[in-house]
Amino acid sequence: MLEVRDLSKSFGGLKAVGNLSIRVGQGEFVGVIGPNGAGKTTLMNLVTGYMQPTSGDILFEGRSIVGLKPYQISHRGVGRTFQVVRPFSEMSVEDNVMTGALFSGAKTSSLAKARKAAELPMELTGLAAKRHMHAGALTLGEKKKLELARALATAPRLLLLDEVMGGVTRGEVDDLMVVLQRIHASGVTIVMIEHLVEVIMALSKRVVVLNFGQKLHEGSPREVVEHPAVIESYLGRPLDAEVA
Ligand SMILES: Nc1ncnc2c1ncn2[C@@H]1O[C@H](COP(=O)(O)OP(=O)(O)OP(=O)(O)O)[C@@H](O)[C@H]1O
Question: Which of 131, 150, 201, 208 is the most buried (most CB within 10 A)?
Fold first, then answer.
């Protein structure tokens, strides 16, 4: 479904992503981990068209998406969330989700259609009962769900998640994990960047570890947490085996 081929992105002399190749198959839930500055967000910005690669190619469903604008990539079926959530605070939850549908390209051109397109994302994220609340009144965990719902309203087949769990309480983490499982079960392929390794271990079947913009290791959650280079460069110590 997604094929990143020999991708590089340099900022001046710094190679944020270097000769990186990753494949994601339809229906997968892939985790991406790595230390601060490993190039995770840059990779996501490259795939979603917010940055252009220095070299390499990115194919989505067999066609190159390099050079396309973010809205064009969204229109092709690639959705994303951002690390910092920025809902329209004065607008209702439902109207916020509708903006996702309205700005996803030519697919949803009327308010009535956007309202309909917002329904399933609100159900999947558990926000349907709060549809009339101002987004500004939501907890951070709920704002993260709103961010997910807005991304889902663009009807993505592939969803890229950047640190969805950042800053939320432990209870909200558990809640968001259930939401992500539900989204995945609905048929959306997911690539998830996350600092909470136990979350990645619980949700993804395959984990890619980045370090200095390159792939340090790739494998099942258990393989990854037991790999000496991953322990040395990222985990710092072996992870409790039971979470793997
Ligand atoms: N727009 C930019 N201009 C210059 N350097 C950048 C830019 N964006 C990222 N970098 C640099 O590229 C490297 C990779 O950054 P990136 O944000 O992709 O890492 P990350 O793995 O997402 O880190 P974190 O876990 O802290 O979010 C870092 O050294 C960062 O300082």
Answer: 150
